[in-house]
């Protein structure tokens, strides 16, 4: 992971503008900092971590924007009955 952090620090925010991750159980976000100094001046990138991501084909607007994100939850014990 140290190499990954070096790549993120080197190429953010101009090449790596945002990171989108999925498969967690909550809506979350993460912040990346330059040289592990955690203050507002050294923040270089945010990461949005969604509980699920579904890739659809031919729907890439090329705008680098996330449009209308929605999160759904279900009580699986109730759904199984």
TrEMBL record:
Record keywords, A-Z: Glycoprotein, Hydrolase
Source species, domain of life: Eukaryota
The keyword Glycoprotein is annotated on this UniProt entry: yes
Cellular component, GO, one term: extracellular space
Any one GO MF annotation of this record: phosphoric diester hydrolase activity
Name of the protein described by the UniProt record: Sphingomyelin phosphodiesterase
Organism: Lunasporangiospora selenospora
